[in-house]
Structures are given as structure tokens and as C-alpha cells.
Design a protein that fits this description.
Helix content is 77%, strand content 0%. It is built from 7 helices and no strands. The chain has helices spanning 11-19, 24-39, 43-46, 53-69, 74-80, 86-102, 104-149. Helix 2 (24-39) packs across helix 7 (104-149).
């Protein structure tokens, strides 16, 4: 972000403007997708107002994973949960912590979500490294061609 364009904003608000368009929102969507896969529920059902047990525990897992893995405020996490507010997201986070302590099936699925997201992060990093390596090899090849021409 160009500081000249955002000269009137102090640092905190520049970061908020920048954060609005970064990948953390994509991370929230990925976390929600992961929770839907592991808990075997539909995304529309998770963000609905339904209080069915399967959907509620998936929402709780999403809130905890989102809070732990991203820097997004509770307000944004609540919006990803179907337009809910920050207090609902905080309650879901607290419920998830309690479920991890008392409900072994939830804890097992929560751990599966964490492992799946960690694996996805490793794959993303590997793809970035591969792209960089491809660019470096392309540059080396061009340098070899240029030195052969001289």
C-alpha cells in the first residue's frame, strides 16, 4: 500500500485498510471449508441459524480455529458465521474450548481440522518455494544463454 495515497490515515487505519484485502479472509473461508469437510456438514447449514448439534459443533470448531490461526477480530469471525456478532463468535470460541475438555469426539475432529489446515499450509509454502525455484532456474537458464551468446 502506498503511504502517499493513504497519507491522511494514521498507521493503525492503514493496516486495517490493508488487512481488508489480504488473504486472511481467504484463510477464514478455508477454515470454514475444512470444518465442513471434517464434521461432514454443508457450509450453508453451518452458517444458518439452525441449532442442530452437528452444525453447532462445526461452528464452534470454526470459531476456535479462526481465533487461534488468524489475526481477525471476533466481529469478522462472526460475520463469516452467517452475519453473527462478536459476542456469538466469542461464545462459540468458549464453547469449543469446553468441548475439547469434555467431549472426546469433538476433540478428535478438532485435531483433524488442525492437522488438515497445517498440511494445507505446508502445501501452500511448498508451492511458493517451487514457484521461486522455477523462477530462479529460469533466470539461471537465461544467464547461461546470455553468456553463451557473448
Amino acid at each position: 500500500m502506498n503511504p502517499v495515497i493513504y497519507a491522511g490515515l494514521d498507521y493503525k487505519y492503514r493496516l486495517l485498510a490493508l488487512n481488508k484485502y489480504t488473504s486472511s479472509r481467504a484463510d477464514l473461508t478455508g477454515i470454514l471449508d475444512c470444518c465442513c469437510i471434517v464434521f461432514d456438514v454443508d457450509k450453508d447449514d453451518v452458517i444458518s441459524r439452525s441449532r442442530k448439534h452437528e452444525y453447532a459443533i462445526a461452528r464452534h470448531a470454526f470459531a476456535k480455529l479462526s481465533r487461534d490461526r488468524t489475526e481477525e477480530p471476533l466481529r469478522i469471525i462472526g460475520e463469516h458465521l452467517g452475519g453473527r456478532d462478536h459476542s456469538t463468535a466469542l461464545n462459540s470460541y468458549t464453547q469449543a474450548e469446553n468441548l475439547i475438555k469434555t467431549y472426546p469426539a469433538f476433540k478428535e475432529r478438532y485435531q483433524m481440522c488442525k492437522e488438515l489446515l497445517d498440511t494445507a499450509d505446508i502445501v501452500k509454502k511448498a508451492n511458493k518455494i517451487k514457484k521461486v525455484a522455477d523462477k530462479l532456474s529460469l533466470i539461471r537458464n537465461q544467464n547461461i544463454i546470455l553468456t553463451d551468446l557473448q
